[in-house]
Give the backbone structure.
Amino acid sequence: EASSLFVQVNSLPDTASAISGNNVVCQGNSSVVYTINPIQNATSYLWELTQGATGSSTTNSISVSFGTEAVSGEISVKGINSCGEGAGSTLPITVNPIPMAAGVISGSSIVCQGQNAVAYTVPAISNATSYVWTLPNGANGTSTTNSISVDYSSSATSGNITVKGINSC
């Protein structure tokens, strides 16, 4: 008499669908959500992130934070189960940089009330598309570049001149 054994053949997870989410981000962005459709036969999900990005998930959705050192790359995901891994899906990610720190401002640090056209400059700030200058009370001047001409009124007071670079991020 023959002996028999029922064998159940389990499937690998199906191929992951396209990842939805923002594919252009800035360094420093947080809580950026990426999702895919649920994967048939997957009991868990394996997400891989671009360098400098953090987040973890075993589901079909992940919240990602892009650090100030994050770089462009890709996010990928695949379904897994006890049989192995299914085919994954990848989304190219462009990570735009934030401006670097400003260097030392050069210009006269001792001025007189009523003195005009005092020039100040800062070395070009990497990744900056514009500059924001802040002047002490009674000092007047505007600039969106790495140099500014300042007029000190007759009521100008001592204080700090500051500058920072900005861009779309």
In short: The radius of gyration is 28 Å. The longest strand covers residues 73-81. The chain has a mean pLDDT of 96. Residues 9 and 83 are 10 Å apart (CA to CA).
